[in-house]
Write the structure tokens for this entry.
Amino acid sequence: MGDRLKLGISACLLGERVRYNGGHKRSALCTEVLTEHFELVPVCPEVAIGLGTPRPAIRLVGDADAPRALVPQEHGRDLTAELRDQGARVARELDDISGFVLMHKSPSCGLHRVKLYRDNGHLAEATTRGVFAASLHQQRPELPLEDEGRLHDPVLRENFLNRVFVYGRWQRLLAGGLSQQGLLDFHARHKYLLMATHPQQQKALGRLLSNLANQNLVDLAPLYFRQLMAALSRPATRGTHSNVLQHLSGHLKQHLGDAERTELQRLIEQYRTGVIPLVVPLTLLRHHFNRHPDAYVANQDYLQPYPDDLSLRNAI
Ligand code: SF4
């Protein structure tokens, strides 16, 4: 792997004119922010199965759990199997991507709330997910996926990119050769990130690894990672982040004077109650840990899980 992590992306989000109507859906977030930090790998599953541009639109019809991708203007031509195969192909061939940004509401790429039609042509009440996106998720359930539309929500954006960086660290761990100690270190460095998203699962995963010497690493590691990624997909709240900030502040107890402790507690409380963003108490904590290094905290990814200039914690 190179220095920058790779993200798959629906090609129309990069401004490629591959949509059914000959247009694109260029996303400023993807082309101006994500390109600074990631290598983006464009994929258009509809073009990949040989459809031209422009082309008749696809519709999802039938069961929300297994919709068929049909082309009403071509007598209901069924493209389900081909789009599903594209999901499997991308999952297999792009094995070095650490996440995928998908075009929302697309019958191929959409991940959430894609329109579904009944066999009689009427809109169904239920919604579904695009056939390509569903297949990709089925093949690589741990791979972070997100709709571009949802990335405009700061909490969901932070959650997705956090998972992308964790996934990237896991890929690097595997590339370097997995060992018992490597797995334990990996878990240890993510303790506070897990505590911020799913405190119960943080403990459960610790128990899963507690008897590592007597377990088969090859079987246990994928099980661990699947559960870790599922836990991290739950967005952190101001309450859970505040809990982590308190744990971190506990490591400074011996080093801070009364005034510094009071100021730190005031900022954590202001963050908890929604007055200031997470970056404010975190910046003060980082300042204190620079002056009073703590080996345990220095090994945690929580204080800096991704590059600061992504500015993800300024908005949550
Ligand atoms: S949403 Fe997906 S299938 Fe549709 S044009 Fe964009 S990349 Fe292609």
